[in-house]
Amino acid sequence: MSLSSFEFIPLTEELELLPFRCKDEDLNNFLFDDAKHYLAELMAVTYLFIDPATQQTVAYFSLLNDKVSYDPEEHSFWNRLNRRISNRKRRRNYPSVKIGRLAVSQDYAEQGIGREILNFIKHAFTNGNRTGCRFITVDAYAEATAFYQKNGFDFFTKKDEREDTRLMYFDLKPFKDAQTLISSTE
User: Fold this and answer.
1) Which of 49, 82, 94, 158 could cross-link 6 (Cys pair, CB 3.0–4.6 Å)?
2) Taking a C-beta distance cutoff of 8 angstroms, is the pair 90, 7 a contact?
3) Partners of 68 in the beta sheet?
């Protein structure tokens, strides 16, 4: 299913939320109880996909600023990460955007909408982006890590293997390079 079938709406403090229910109660509660507070405090912005035919929220995601920082305990990871970046641009931290929440309604689950949202975010931060952003990060619920891995995300560390959430990242540079290559061959 394509996101183009739905209305894309940034959440505002005045917006009346339409029905939404996914399998995870924490994600349901965030949308209805916390998303507007995060917006008011300038902590995160939430975006909605609405089905105009059913007047339901199909999916939502929240974004906030983040950074990928050097961790001396993860020296080998940092070396692998730095090899992707030219020597003169290497730093102790890199700009990123964090997916704070991403949820798809039970009524629209298993239709590729989550993958489409990740591609939408990747495209947004590699085409006409207003700020530098090299990585997308997410604190993925353990049960969602396979979904993120299928969509090109990798783990930062093994330290959180037994935790409820795992810190994961996606490098936008190869994605942008692939998009540039595709558009140059068309």
Assistant:
1) 49
2) no
3) 94
CATH of the domain at 152: 3.40.630.30
The pLDDT value recorded for residue 180 is 67
Question: Of the candidates 36, 137, 131, which has an alpha carbon nearest to the alpha carbon of residue 96?
Answer: 137
C-alpha distance from residue 78 to each of 47, 100, 137 (Å)? 32, 23, 15
Question: What is the number of structural domains in the chain?
Answer: 1
pTM of this prediction?
Answer: 0.90
Tokens read off for 164: 């409820």
Query: What type of residue sits at position 74?
Result: E
Q: Is the pLDDT score of 4 beyond 80?
A: yes
Give the Cα separation of 97 and 45 in Å (integer): 11
Helix, coil or strand: residue 48: strand
Which domain does 65 fall in, by range? 3-185
Tokens of 106: 């039970």
The strand pairing partners of 64, in sequence order, are 98
Residue type present at position 115: R
Say how far apart CA 179 and CA 172 lie, in whole Å: 10
The CA distance from 117 to 8, in Å, is: 11
